[in-house]
Amino acid sequence: MEQRELRALLDAVAAQEVSAEEALLMLRKAPVAELGYASVDLHRGIRQGTAEVIYGEGKTAEQIAGIADAMLKHQQKRVLITRMNSQKAAYLQEKYDLDYNTVGQIGVIGGKPDPTGCGTILIATGGTSDIPVAEEAAFTAEVLGNRVTRLYDVGVAGLHRLLSHLDAIMSARVIVAIAGMEGALASVIGGLADCPVIAVPTSIGYGASFGGVSALLSMLNSCASGVSVVNIDNGFGAAYQASMINHIGGTDENTLS
Question: Which of 100, 145, 186, 232 could anchor a disulfide with 116, C-beta 3.0 to 4.6 Å?
Answer without folding.
Answer: 145
